[in-house]
Specification:
Blueprint: E1 2-5, E2 10-16, E3 29-32, H1 34-39, E4 42-44, E5 49-51, H2 55-61, E6 68-71, E7 73-74, E8 83-88, E9 93-95, E10 99-104, H3 111-119, H4 121-128, E11 132-133, E12 138-139, H5 142-147, E13 149-152, H6 155-195, H7 198-208, H8 213-225, H9 229-238, H10 240-251, E14 257-260, E15 263-266, E16 270-273, E17 278-282, E18 291-292, E19 296-299, E20 307-308, E21 315-317, E22 329-330, E23 335-338, E24 346-348, E25 356-358, E26 362-367, H11 373-381, H12 383-392, H13 403-407, E27 410-413, H14 416-456, H15 490-502, H16 507-526, E28 544-551, E29 554-560, E30 564-571, H17 576-588, H18 590-597, E31 602-606, E32 611-619, H19 628-675
Helix pairs in contact: 3-4, 3-6, 6-14, 6-15, 7-8, 8-10, 9-10, 16-19, 17-19, 18-19
Domain DUF4268: 514-646
GO molecular function, one term: DNA binding
Family: Belongs to the type-I restriction system S methylase family.
């Protein structure tokens, strides 16, 4: 690896930007400021402030494609020397005085390669050597940047590396775009149904105009779908099932409004509070001595960011610290809210391999029913909720809000059938957001790992893992949601269509993640039912989930395969005599067990009577998230029935084994006494 002063790579000397006071800004040439640099690592047609320029200023301060911009100053050391790359704009763009422009010789040096270098841990480490820390800010000098030693490689190598890293970056950006679109679609439907009550008001207007009930239903269908009457007529012919779904959705809405404490709301709905649809949980008060440099991450106030929790900014505790704190453990998809500093900020816990825990002054909003999660999420992400929480916050040094105040947020509570339909439509979008965010995190890690290894020679270009070339996560699992929720605009529709077109079959790769997400929802549903079997079980990434029945070697299990789900009991005691006893006792009562359960069971005896299983399965497309609410209901209902049907037989079997143990213990004591 060879090094040169950074100035040797430049086509023209580096220069600082223009000083333009705020009072003269507003019109003129677009100008990149510190805000754009820190918000957009890749500056490409982004909105920004404007400033008037003279002809001389125009000649020396316009940006060209591939120019690198560096922050001269920052309030924090990590921000000084921050690098962004200017990619393009539809009109001329200049830059302000707090930035340094570096224009490379494109014949020998690829700007994108050096952008990724300065954005990598290697480049940041090099930049840190020239940062000067002042009393109120940190900064770099242009002269020091010019003299900074940077690695140089052949242009072919630079181009190849830049292409790989840029491909990863574009996939990350596409995922981000899709997630923004999904969020917009969810909030659009939420506002239409539960804030503006548009389907209900469409029915009311149709009836007040002298229309029939069928006219009112058609008006609601038009409002819900964003389609005209003619388009709906075409849909009824070309996609009759979708038309029937849309009609069934519109039928759920009432045809009248009623007075309430929240002004007019749809007839049959109720006015209530956030506490009516969710439980609020405060985090655990970890002590200062608990913190560690590694271990399990703990989500603190500063980690709760809009949309997703930032797991990179978490603090850590050791395993022994969290012993007994299982109720504070977090799972992917949990909705958290900040209570201090930035009260009302909400974000989802991303999917992660690590166990995570909840710190004090961060709250978890847990839906009372699993089908209320989408409604809860959209309420908490609505700007009105954040404004309410900010208004409830108090404190001179830092704004603080209580869990009680958050729980008293007033809202409209629809009837369950509409909440469930909303969940069927929105929950797949939220799950897709989690998967895409997870994939982006994986791609980011791949990008950050690749460059240092390529530069050091630890990896050569042919060795780069295929993961660098993976297509974006499939977004086809929307249950044709655009038949119900019109895409916000053409651009958003194109983003989704582009992702669908580019997506390869990555289902195999994401099955473990899919299973983890499903089991989290199942366990959430079990926590709200009479069965206590799964109270202390953690979700897993395998296709089954087991819970000890209370008898060693005998476990209840849930099944989640691609085309079926099931409930059952599995015995594998590895003792033929014991196994035979259990099988014979249960088989003797087969008719009574199946009668109590309500369905016939499949009885299997395997491995020369060293394993035995009974189960009940149902065929269904398990990987279609639109089926998940129905699947979870089925699992909870049938596992509860199975547990009740087997309670008495297993209790008798357990008593038998306890008696056998007791006799063996007595015989051993007698033998021991005789030997003495």
């Amino acid at each position: 690896m060879r090094f040169k002063p950074f100035s040797d790579l430049l086509d023209v000397p580096l220069r600082n930007g223009l000083t333009k006071p705020k009072k003269i800004r507003g019109e003129g040439i677009k100008m990149v400021n510190m805000g754009e640099l820190f918000k957009h690592p890749r500056i490409d047609n982004v909105p920004m402030d404007r400033a008037p320029l003279t002809d001389k200023e125009l000649a020396i301060s316009l940006l060209q494609k591939g120019d690198l911009l560096f922050a001269r100053q920052s309030l924090v050391r990590e921000g000084a020397g921050k690098c962004s790359i200017f990619l393009d704009d539809k009109e001329p763009v200049c830059f302000e005085s707090h930035l340094i422009r570096c224009r490379l010789n494109h014949n020998d040096y690829n700007p994108l390669f050096y952008f990724y270098y300065f954005d990598s841990p290697l480049g940041k480490q090099a930049m840190d050597t020239i940062i000067e820390q002042g009393a109120g800010a940190a900064g770099i000098r242009g002269s020091d940047l010019a003299n900074l030693q940077v690695p140089v490689y052949s242009i072919d190598f630079q181009n190849a590396v830049a292409t790989i890293l840029d491909g990863l970056e574009r996939k990350i950006q596409l995922n981000h775009q899709i997630n923004q679109t999904l969020e917009k679609m969810a909030q659009t439907l939420f506002k239409s149904w539960f804030v503006d009550f548009e389907p209900v008001k469409a029915k009311v207007a149709a009836l007040e105009a002298g229309g029939s009930e069928e006219d009112a239903l058609l008006a609601a269908m038009e409002t819900v779908s964003g389609k005209t009457a003619d388009q709906l007529a075409t849909l009824s012919i070309e996609q009759s099932e979708r038309h029937a779904e849309l009609r069934a959705t519109a039928e759920l809405f009432p045809s009248a409004m009623q007075d309430s404490e929240l002004n007019e709301i749809p007839e049959g709905w109720e006015s209530g509070y956030l506490s009516d649809i969710c439980d609020f949980q405060n985090g655990y008060a970890f002590k200062s001595k608990d913190w560690s440099d590694s271990g399990f991450p703990v989500v603190k106030i500063g980690s709760v960011k809009p949309a997703f929790v930032d797991t990179q900014s978490c603090s850590y505790v050791q395993e022994e610290t969290v012993a007994g704190l299982e109720r504070f453990e977090l799972y992917g998809g949990d909705l958290l809210i900040g209570m201090t500093g930035y009260p009302g900020e909400t974000g989802l816990v991303p999917i992660t391999e690590n166990r995570m825990f909840l710190n004090q002054r961060v709250g978890r909003l847990k839906p009372k029913q699993y089908y209320q999660k989408a409604l809860l999420y959209c309420n908490a992400r609505d700007s009105a909720f954040k404004q309410y929480v900010e208004g409830q916050a108090h404190g001179s040094a830092q704004a603080n809000v209580s869990g009680k105040a958050i729980s008293q947020y007033p809202l409209t509570i629809p009837i369950d059938s509409i909440v469930q339909r909303f969940s069927e439509l929105i929950e797949p979008l939220l799950q897709q957001k989690l998967i895409l965010h997870s994939e982006s995190s994986s791609l980011s890690s791949t990008r950050d790992i690749l460059l240092p290894k390529l530069l050091s020679g630890e990896l050569t270009l042919p060795d780069v893992n295929d993961e660098a070339h993976a297509e974006p996560q499939d977004v086809a699992h929307f249950h044709d949601v655009d038949q119900i929720i019109p895409a916000p605009n053409l651009t958003d529709s194109m983003v989704i269509k582009k992702a669908k077109k580019q997506s390869a079959d990555t289902q195999q790769t994401h099955r473990p993640t899919l299973r983890l997400m499903f089991w989290e929802k199942v366990l959430d549903a079990f926590s709200n039912c009479s069965s206590s079997l799964y109270n202390n079980v953690r979700p897993s990434k395998i296709h089954w989930l087991s819970m000890d029945s209370g008898i060693k070697g005998i476990a209840y299990h849930l099944i989640f395969d691609k085309n079926e789900i099931g409930v059952g009991l599995c015995l594998q005691k590895n003792e033929e005599e014991a196994n035979n006893y259990v099988y014979e006792r249960l088989n003797e009562q087969k008719n009574e067990i199946e009668a109590s359960y309500g369905y016939p069971l499949v009885w299997w005896q395997l491995n020369c009577r060293l394993a035995f299983r009974l189960q009940h399965t149902r065929d269904i497309d398990s990987y279609d998230r639109a089926n998940w609410p129905e699947m979870i209901d089925w699992m909870v209902t049938h596992m509860t029935k199975l547990e009740n049907a087997l309670h008495v037989p297993l209790k008798a079997i357990n008593q038998h084994f306890n008696d056998v143990k007791a006799r063996r213990r007595q015989n051993a004591l007698k033998l021991s006494s005789g030997n003495e």
